[in-house]
Amino acid sequence: MQDYFITEHTETRIRDFADGFREKRVPIEMRTDRFTERVSRILPFRMKLPEPSHPLALIEEAKKNCPFCPERLDSSTPMFPEEIVQGGRLRHGASVVIPNAFPYCSFCGVTIFAPDHYIPMDNITDQVLSDPLEASLRWFDRLYEYDSAITYYSINWNYLPTAGGSLFHPHFQVVADPNPTNFHGRLINAASAYRTVRGTCYWKELLGFEEKQGQRDLFRAGDVVFLASFSPAGIFGEVLVLFQNKTALGDITDSDWQDFIDGLTRVLRCFFRLNLDCLNMTLLLSRHGDPDTWVQARIMPRVLIPPWGTSDVNYFEKGHEERVVVFAPELLAEEIRKTQ
Fold first, then answer.
1. What are the pLDDT digits (tens) for 242-266?
2. Taking the CB of residue 305, how many other CB atoms lie within 10 A of it?
3. Of 167, 45, 70, which Cα lies nearest the Cα of 110?
4. Pick from 101, 170, 187, 230: CA 20 to 30 A from residue 56's CA?
5. What's this model's pTM, rounded to 2 decimal places?
6. At what angle do helices 329-337 and 254-273 cross, to 10 degrees?
7. Whether the Cβ atoms of residue 339 and residue 220 lie closer than 8 Å to each other
């Protein structure tokens, strides 16, 4: 397993104007995860925790025309064809699943959490998340009844516009397709190749390795395990969530889902404490399962970098597919472990 996690150290030399132009050496750490094919550059000297970023006046102004608020939901959002969802919208508890008006694929929905236009991160509790999660899963079931070829799913979350959300009103993006997305497919292929070469399951090996290392393992909630990714996709790191030995949607019990929600809210409490108050989440699922690929999620805080509100994504991510990381995974793990 260690040979899949490659760390290289280098440095650059500069003459520092803030220190009388004396020469100093600046360390740079490069991490390559051979399994996910991710490369990250760990640059802790750039790290500065952000200030809270939610403009309450703008949120309130946006409420006046928000299509997801209850007074406009029925008249300002699309409906599914009747043969897919009877009545055009799928409702569960406080949540509603509607079609995405700007879809990425043939079956692309939006799960609106609740009537509330804005829910601060510290108010996102188990109760807030349980209805939209269940509604999303029911939508996947409905699609499978409609067309049994639709077997790959994901539940995605852009929490607030600074993380790519188009609206403040909390919602999941739910995607269903006959084929896995690019990253999901890469994981499936890599896990199959690992089995061929090593004769065992990659995810099982990863858990054993991380537990032995003791640096990036966070906590367990039943059969759901939370880790900090070795080579994260986000500038402030990434939390990897593994449903242990669960490969298919039908393998996951109600207790597993509750454990996932419990762990997710603990992660959110840590993010909120650190002012990392925006995030992206992707939960990857499949109807029938792939033998060596466990159900899993990735959660990444997103930030506007102070003092000018600079985007946390730049040319290295977009142009080179390498991630710049200022919050080392081991530091993220330490902060989440001490959050209860």
1. 999 999 999 999 999 999 999 999 9
2. 17
3. 167
4. 101
5. 0.94
6. 110
7. no
